[in-house]
Task: structure prediction
Amino acid sequence: MLNENFLFVGALLLFVAVLAGKAAYRLGAPALLLFLGVGMLFGYNDFVSFNSYDFAQFIGMVAMCIILFSGGMDTKFSEVRPILGPGVVMATLGVVVTALFVGGFVYLLSPYIGIEITFPFALLLAATVSSTDSASVFSILRSKKQGLTQNLRPLLELESGSNDPMAYILTVMLVGIVSDGADLDWMSALRTFAIQMSVGALMGYGLGRVAVWTINHINIRSNPSLYSVLLLAFAFFVYSFTTMIYGNGYLAVYIAGLVVGNYRIMYRNMLSTFFDSFTWLLQIVLFLALGLLVDIDDLLQPDVLFVGVAVGIFMIFIARPLTTFVCMLPFRRFTGKARLYISWVGLRGAVPIIFALYPISAGLANAEYIFNVIFVVTIISLIIQGTTVSGMASWLGLSYEEPEQTFKLTVPDHIRSEFLEVGVTASMLHNGDTLKDIHLPGNTLVVMVCRGENYFVPKGHTQLKPGDKLLLVSDNNDELLQKVQDLGIKNIIPMK
Result:
């Protein structure tokens, strides 16, 4: 009977969460905020009882593995390469600077709340909330059909996907310091950081290449669905093995995802669909679990509420902007508006809450106080920043509408030809309005035309009109892209 009840409650929670996600999209609110709210609602007065911090931590670990791996798969090297420098600086130095700012603020604030807080304890609280949340950033940026100028989206995704290791190292180190009462050893911290990041990066790249080779050479085409299971196993293996050899598993799994996403692999579209769906499932489960775990009455305690709101406001309007402008000083090509937007998309979400579970697992005094404060900070961040990500980009003039793909084409990855969708403009037709008047590379074919609601296969004498959409295929994508750009075509949509 217990199993049936568990499945019933689980199904009900998932159903309500999906409806909440639909409502969030219409309201312009982050879906993850409503998932968290559903969990808190069902957990109120133990309507659904869930109080296992260890199990919540395990769920967080599993979810973060897949979220980071999937996020890496969806990120292209070509997009990351130009912003690699600022992304790495924000993901490392940015986390440390944020922790110092917030830690100092909490330490100075402590005399006014009647709680004696040492500086290492204040730093511990700050470290847990020092990284932006990849789940929140990925889901919000990718659910909005909104492009960002100055390579801002890959920069923000790279930062959120790769700054968790730094926050993790700081959190674990400070848990040990607070627990043992030892002094802060920055040299030891730097050594640990260097080892974990180096091992994590090497294992992520190496095991990512192994995953690509295995998928392309193992023959399980009789049951292609098993490729998804195989890649899932690789993702968990990368994290666990890297952690076992004292590397950072979160960094490794993100880099492995980057490698898999940027090399040719069998059944790419099927794998991407699987991981996208699985990622959303784990995000829902994670935020529901965290919502169930918290006690609303504890959040509403005056000292928790005051510190949580104060830290949240300080982080959004002071710490994050200061950190961003300090870290971005060497990178002159970003405008002031771009830097302001980067500072605004410093979302906190599931990751800080997961990291706030580590002090509880270690049995530290006042650990639950840290957890409750971080929970309030997360809610403040999701409400203020999460609901205004799109609007802030538009207000700063940094956004543009991403063109919608007309030809819903799924191309197997082993096909070497490249497909491209272009929109016909008046300038394209200045030499004539028929297909044969458009001089395309010899290795390129126009295979279909979309005009309004009609689709047809063109011939050389087919007359084209501005607004038509052309589906092109070529075996030399670089040559094709250069040609369409020479023709003055800007609305180009790669098919894969």
